[in-house]
Task: structure prediction
Amino acid sequence: MTASPARGPIRLALAEDPLSVTASAPWIGPLVALGTRAARFSRKQQGRQLVVALSVPQRDFAATLIAAGWVLTQSVTELPEPMEILRATEPGTVLRVVSERDVILDHFTWLDEEKSPPRLHLSSSQWQVPRIRALQVVDGVALDKPLRMARPEPGAIGRLARMTDGWDSRLAVGTADLAIIGTRTWLQEDFDAFLSREDEMQAEKPKELIEDLAKAAAKGKPYKVGFGHGALLDVVLPDSEKSATWFTTVFAAARLADKLPLPSALNAAILDGSGAIKYLAEIETPVVICILDRSVADETAAEMVVQLRNTRGEPLSLAEDLGWRPPGGVEALAFTVAL
Amino acid sequence: MSRIDALNQRYAACASLVHSGVEIVAVGDPAGARFNAAVRRLMVLFKDEGGGYLEDLVGAAKALRWRQITQPQPLDFNPGLRQLAGEVTKHAARLRGAIGDQALLDELATAAAELAATEPVVGTLLLRSCEEVGAASCVVIAASRPAAAGLESWLNEHGVMVLTAGGLERDQPEREQAYVIGPPRFYRSSLVTAPVMSGISFLLPSWFGDRSVPRSAISDYAEGAIRIEARVFTEGDTTEPDWELPEDAEEENEFLPQPVWGNRQSGDREPTSEEVEARKVLLSGNLAMWLDDGERIRSLDPAQPAGERVTYTEVPAVRAGTYLLLRQGETERGALHRAAIARLARGEIIDQAQAAWKHLLAERLQESGYRQVVRQLRAAGIRTADRARAWTNPNLIRPSSDQDFERLLQWLGINTQPTFGYASMLRKTLYQVSAEIGKQLEAAVSAADLSELETTGYLSLDVKTEGFRGILATRVLAVSPFTEIVPRHDARVPFEDRSGQWLE
Result:
């Protein structure tokens, strides 16, 4: 992510409609940048939990933008060639396959090297190996039936962050180290927005988007954002029942009490709103980002954060330690606590 | 305007308000100043002497002063003002001979009568301002629903919109200017820290000294802190009476209608194992409840979308405005506990193991006292030691931290296993049962008319399951500042109580 306070931020725009051109706003880019800065800081800092709390005039999109920034910073694993992996794979192993149009999670049955080009056989589909963009063996997943989803497209933000190289490897590996806790309904609405750069040309739209727009128009139905459209949904990539790969796990705050403690593989949790922040003391991920919604009258969550900072926190300077300044309308603080 | 355009505008309005600040117009109000001076003298007397006999007069006087600030509409539209002035006069008359300072009583009565006969100055200025800006460009914000209703009865004729701060947040009308009735500190901080429009003016009588603008809770420590300045303008006749008033600034609580809590009755003793420390919580619908610091309590957030409204609130976070979900008759946690034990194969044994360590803990608390025990537990490395008393509660299964629980058992001299395992299994089962009940509650909440909940403050929910006699959703009006010792089985069971009547 190339936004930096020294150079002046790249102005980003949000739109609910993939075809509209929207005006940029100065608060959007810095929120994405916060996600990337927190990720970079956490890699340098071990042993203590980083807590960032920011307050915004209204919660909309804040968690999603920060999540996008976090995801963008994740390192890409260099994967071996698909043939190499397949030759060493036992039948029955669960594989994640990224093709041009799909991501599939399914059991490996056999590799047919007699055919030219070689064919990969999964329990419910088969693939020409040269056309597979990336694949990975997936451990520890109990799969009843195969899962298939449209291949997510990083879209404008992906191009901006130069994520397009290695994107397929990311999808194949599916490192899900981020959790977002909040109001699930509202988060899902936020994921459906499209992020773009101001004055961006109408660059190549993902095929999936064009087809789905056409289908909706033909049936006279409203267009509904899905995977593969290049929305924030594709970058943040939350888990769902039908997901073959994901980067983020979304928890409904109202149900969280019965799901704690969180899985230990998580590296970051974004707590969106007071319903989530009230569990701050029980979240032990290395990074926690709390989003306070100033439009909500109840300030209990903010008081909790301040209390944690004052009793157990070592304050940090956002400007110096994270290299980040809040945009107008946003105030923020950061500190570390012993885990 | 699209949702995102509105959002961009909101960020811009906030940045703009940080830059230019809010306006405060302090309007000279000699009649109000006179009454205020008398009330302040009365408050000094009340603080010095206490005495239940003064409560009615104090209550009426504060209510009249509050009304005068928050409902400045012309007298013809404000019958409540005359009525309250009458109450003040009546209670002042009743106290004749009971207190030494008869002059104060006379002054209160006279000043109240003068208030009831003088057209409110703030109202005149308000109407003029609205007409200058144009009714379509402005909105008037009132401090409460009754205040909004009062102002609306007058301003509707002039085509001016009136909303509460909550209504403004909900409706977000496209207006440029807001006229807010009363001082900034009578309002939630979000009115200025998350403004919907960049033109905000507060109108208040000039004798109200506190013009501070609330800040967001993290602003003291935050970078880019949202600190809104105020530009103060004065208008009209600002003379104030010449009484010697006490130096100390009046707290906001002095103005707000408040329940009278009295003093702690339970003395200094420790609760027995059949008792708990609890705070009295006043609830909408003329109810009250003793809330003990045990485990979290089931609550409801009507602002959330369907399916995500039923949640839990930690006891210290329960405050005015929280909506609680209470069962009539048996408490939910009793039912949950029974259901969880019933589900487990070795339920009885687990129940006994729990009772054993809790009983031991309660004994130690009785012997050494709470503070001593907390100190010892901290020395043993237990982080959440201050919950020691709460852990004796059979419904709070175990300390949430594994480490704290292990160390607690060690300190009690109990083998970690099987007690630790039993408690964890019970907790897990309890959570499952709780999640199931949560779903049923969500269904009941979805079927209910929540707008009624917001206006009246309480609502009965229809839960179609055996064993549920009735669930009541009710808003917390106030929480007592001190605790009392009450029988354990009385905790969290609602009972009738009218102390909250001034508050609704």
Observations:
- The radius of gyration of chain B is 27 Å.
- The longest strand of chain B covers residues 471-487.
